[in-house]
Fold this sequence. Notes:
The chain is α/β, with parallel strands linked by helices. Helices cover 49% and strands 14% of the residues.
Amino acid sequence: xxxxxxxxxxxLAAVAASTAxxxxxxxxxxxxxxxxxxxxxxxxxxxxxxxxxxxxxLYGLDRxxxxxxxxxxxxxxxxxxILFSVREESDPAVPIVRQLxxxxxxxxxxxxxTGPPPYPNAKIHSLEVMAEAAVxxxxxxxxxxxxxxxxxxxxxxxxxxxxxxxxxxCIARSVPSRSFxxxxxxxxINTQFNPGVLTAWVLLGMQFSIGKTMVIRKQLAAxxxxxxxxxxxxxxxxVLGERVAQAGYTVVLSETVPDNLLADEGMRDSLRHRxxxxxxxxxxxxxxxxGQIFMHxxxxxxxxxxxxxxxxxxxxxxxxxxxxxxxLLAWAxxxxxxxxxxxxxxxxxxPIQDLVSFGVWLWAFFGHEIVWRGARFRVLNGxxxxxxxxxxxxxxxxxxxxxx
Length: 404
């Protein structure tokens, strides 16, 4: 057997493993879908609804910010407060919050000005300040791009009735802007990233959290060292969930699915955004990142097809199964579970998204730098952030590698 034949069979083995991955992810989709149906039949009159504090760090005018924030003011929940934070009073999000205070006088809300952040991850300083000011024990944390239904707080607070539950999180349905690259990114999250989360949930249980929703008790956050301990990490959500699990508590994946509105980004910003995610993932869990190769069904199938022996029915069958499982998983997750209109309208772009996604996954292996909110950082082992210092001439120092 020559080296080409060996490579061909290795490629087919990778295709088979990718098909198996899709099958596990599909099981996760079905499991979460069934959980949603059970939740819909639950007797809500008997549920515990402890008071909660919603923490919303703000920075600038995110897409449709007013409607996103307003969705938290319209909750079907008996007792909740909303805390907003900005770095400075001149932030353009401030007038929106002031108007919400006038429009919803029955909802307790406060705006906190935090000042300059002392950490590379600026959001963590905001969470510290808001958590200290929060009146209630249960904290509901999510980003300013998140928009929710009226039953959101009921769904995400419910699991904390069990003392063994330390944190509640959930996947989100990404909603793109009109940008082509935003549409590709939404397809990637809804058909690839979310199934990856569900696969981890099925195989290992939730040992991390997702920043679109993190619900935790103030006491437990303090027990883990406070939010400040996350200030040097890019993937603060992943680290928080990991530490909750390591402390012996359960991380629950809620059946509720909020919307996450993506920014109106062009190619450059979208690719930088994706690269930031990938490099964060690579440094946070290196072995798991290598294993993500099996999430890329289409590139693996194309590679196997290119080197497969001519007319080999086993090879053709494996390649067809790999591609079919990819399409079935995309339909089940985006179409059935998330009810994603983007997939229904732009699903034909899935092959382009998959090739772009694979390219960025490979790109993340080469280099350590990211660009985040206009600043340049280096991602170190464990996902720790290190600001990249500039030389007096304004160029990056000799140890940095430039991004396009």
